[in-house]
Amino acid sequence: GAGVSQSPRYKVAKRGQDVALRCDPISGHVSLFWYQQALGQGPEFLTYFQNEAQLDKSGLPSDRFFAERPEGSVSTLKIQRTQQEDSAVYLCASSLGSVGVNTGELFFGEGSRLTVL
Amino acid sequence: TQLLEQSPQFLSIQEGENLTVYCNSSSVFSSLQWYRQEPGEGPVLLVTVVTGGEVKKLKRLTFQFGDARKDSSLHITAAQPGDTGLYLCAGGDNYGQNFVFGPGTRLSVLP
Asked: Residues B91-104: what's their mean pLDDT?
């Protein structure tokens, strides 16, 4: 497809399980962002990639969160030993630009809604 | 940490009314973007403003960036039910590496 694709759309996990969320950005987009959006809130920055390099991971809430983009295209956000507070929508966004292109439009996927029981 | 505040948090109006929502920060941003998000969807970009004092119009929507590049407003004229959604502002840093989002204004336009 032409847009950002995320899977799964919905994930229910038992507390303590590991989950992996996938993001397929728009082809050719250099930048890829992960955001966490709690119910009724705006997206909170998690991490940013420029191609395969993870340039900023300051928003990851704990060491249970890990993201990778090994070939500079598809990215995976992994959450280990999930907790109830991890329940949220995880949004992936890609952008054509890179460092210095500070007006780049972010194209968002539909998100992966994670519910931890 | 750069923080963005948005007001009002919720707004419910009748079709045809005008409204203004606000985005404020104590920090200076190199650019500011407005997005609209509908339930079950990701945010979609409406506009980017980069110059202090800049005004941009998109049909019935008017966006303004404050002179000091710390705040912005979105004015909607003659609101329609299709304008219903969560309006998010996002401030960009100098390197384009991080966009900080506000909490959003949830707008409901009743027919």
From this structure: 79
